[in-house]
Design a protein that fits this description.
2 domains; mainly beta; ten-stranded antiparallel sheet; Glucose Permease (Domain IIA); five-stranded antiparallel sheet
């Protein structure tokens, strides 16, 4: 008991004062180990994803404070051992925008005298969401994530408790999909960005925290007039995408379907209470090459396939609707490692070929009935993932 008590006192002192303890191993030079109360865990190995605006390095880091003291991050650094900030240094507002509290949005700027949005309370944690542009000239290899903490008692240096951890890298190529829809004017709402509701939603299912919608897209169609709807906004039939055919993105086998849930009234609360069974509404899950493609929010009764059925690329699976957790007709599309919309981890995917018509600058304006007009000539794209609000044609 005495020995355990003494060890506990030593550990407590180290966590309180942030001491760096040299550990002498069987080697020529001592190795300095940084003992800090912050635990850094990468949720899933990082991926380098080709997108419509360049390559992106995407991953999440859970930063947990194991002490009772609130600690404020002063900087996060992303790079390599040789170049610790080669991929970015995040401070002040940029740092605050990276940090999420599960179930919430990015931290807001602190009020006068209030805690910093980069403060992690005692016995608490935050999640840093990384979606970092990577120039074509940079080879992504041995990635390291480092952090520094602001002084938490008088007399400490400007930053202290520096720590660096390796970031595992998933080198598996992104899943290549053909078009899930037909025609022009498809907006990739809530696609990849650090502010997308898909990106910021962490779900704990079956005892595991995941980001199932990490790369998910909500496809909504614009009519020839550049508007989402024409006529009565509260009628599903007024929306340009409603009833559009939904296509198999590859040869595969139908894993499961869900049908019989009602369409919602646009702009109104969902007709069905959201549960793990109903959140995606009427859905089709397609198994292709070891991964699963989820098509959600279909029209009730429109699903044209059954579980276990083999389908071919381009085959019609159902019709775009407004069922489940949805407030307007759209197709929610995602790829995951499991055959469930929530009990899965989101995997990167790209489309083999499409046309990029531009980007919607103000999604709220579209929802209010305003029209979008392209400001560039259509560009053919291949094997890329659209970023948030990109306008596409298939």
């Amino acid at each position: 008991m005495v020995r355990r008590y003494v060890l506990g006192v030593v550990v407590s002192a180290v966590l309180t004062f942030g001491t760096t303890v040299p550990v002498y191993a069987q080697q020529a030079e001592p190795v300095a180990h940084s003992i800090t109360p912050l635990d850094i865990r990468v949720l899933r190995p990082a991926s380098v994803v080709p997108t419509t605006d360049g390559r992106h390095l995407v991953f999440e880091a859970v930063i947990s404070n194991f002490s009772t003291l609130p600690l404020t991050l002063s900087a996060l650094r992303l790079g390599t051992v040789e170049q610790p900030e080669a991929l970015g240094r995040f401070e002040d507002k940029a740092l605050a925008e990276l940090l999420q509290r599960p179930g919430g949005k990015a931290a807001e700027p602190s009020a006068e005298g209030g805690p910093s949005p980069a403060t992690i309370g005692g016995n608490s944690f935050a999640v840093a969401l990384f979606d970092v542009p990577v120039s074509d000239g940079i080879m992504v290899g041995d990635v390291r994530l480092g952090l520094s903490i602001a002084p938490f008692r008088p007399g400490l240096p400007d930053t202290t408790l520096n720590a660096t951890v390796p970031v595992p890298l998933d080198r598996t190529p992104a899943v290549v999909l053909s078009s899930p829809l037909m025609g022009l004017g498809w907006v990739a709402f809530n696609a990849l960005s650090n502010t997308s509701i898909h990106r910021t939603t962490l779900m704990v299912v079956d005892g595991q925290a995941r980001v199932p919608e990490r790369y998910a897209i909500d496809f909504m169609k614009l009519g020839e007039d550049g508007r989402e709807f024409s006529g009565d906004q509260a009628s599903n039939d007024s929306w340009a995408g409603y009833g559009q055919p939904i296509l198999a993105v590859a040869d595969g086998v139908i894993e499961s379907i869900r049908d019989g849930l009602p369409d919602n009234v646009p702009g109104q609360p969902a007709a069905q209470k959201a549960t793990l069974d109903t959140i995606a509404g009427n859905q089709v899950i397609l198994h292709i090459g070891g991964v699963y493609v989820v098509y959600a929010h279909l029209i009730p009764g429109s699903i044209a396939v059954r579980p276990g059925q083999a389908v071919r690329r381009g085959q019609v699976l159902g019709r775009l609707g407004n069922s489940g957790q949805s407030d307007a007709p759209h197709l929610h599309l995602q790829v995951g490692d499991q055959g469930h919309v929530a009990a899965a981890d989101g995997l990167p995917f790209v489309f083999d070929a499409f046309t990029l018509a531009g980007v919607v600058p103000d999604a709220d304006a579209l929802d209010k009935g305003q029209a979008w007009r392209p400001d560039q000539a259509p560009q053919p794209r291949h094997r890329q993932l659209p970023v948030e609000n990109a306008v596409m044609g298939f």
